[in-house]
Amino acid sequence: MDIMPKWVDIIIVPLLSLFLAAFLSALLIIAIGESPIADLAMLKVHASKAMELCAREAMQILGGAVSLRANSGPGKVERIYREVRVNAIGGGSEEIMYDLAARQLGYRS
User: Fold this and answer.
1) For the chain, first and last CA: distance in Å?
2) d(CA 43, CA 40)
3) What pLDDT, on the 0 to 100 scale, is given for residue 1?
């Protein structure tokens, strides 16, 4: 019998792996003193995808209640869902971050 609901697996696992990757990148920056650009680029892609996954799953879990507007403004989940793609593009799109990481690791296209 599975005690944890499925949404816990869907949302918690990506967030924990994101936290772990951010923590390890911070340790590298502190210990070595230089910025691991490829790791940080991939971390940004992973964070964008995790945010998109969490917003999408919150929409699925909450259903129609998400689109209800409180005080004639958008609900929190609705606003986050609409802003996910803007946040993903803000520091560079996923394709640009993949290309940056590949170039830093010595791969050429």
Assistant:
1) 49
2) 5
3) 44
* Ordered structural domains, the chain, with CATH: 6-104 (1.20.140.10)
Q: Which of 55, 11, 18 is nearest to 40 (CA)?
A: 18
Structure tokens at 51: 């945010």
pLDDT at 83 over 60: yes
Show the tokens assigned to 21: 């990757």
What's the chain's Rg over C-alpha atoms? 17
Residue type, 78: E
Q: If we measure between CA atoms, which residue out of 78, 87, 86 comes closest to residue 56?
A: 78
Give the pLDDT confidence of 68-79 residue by residue, as tens digits. Answer: 665 555 677 777
Cα 59 to Cα 52: distance, rounded to the nearest angstrom: 11
Q: Model pTM? A: 0.70
Residues in a beta bridge with 70? 73
Q: Is 97 exposed, middle or buried (0-12, 13-18, 19+ CB in 10 A)?
A: buried
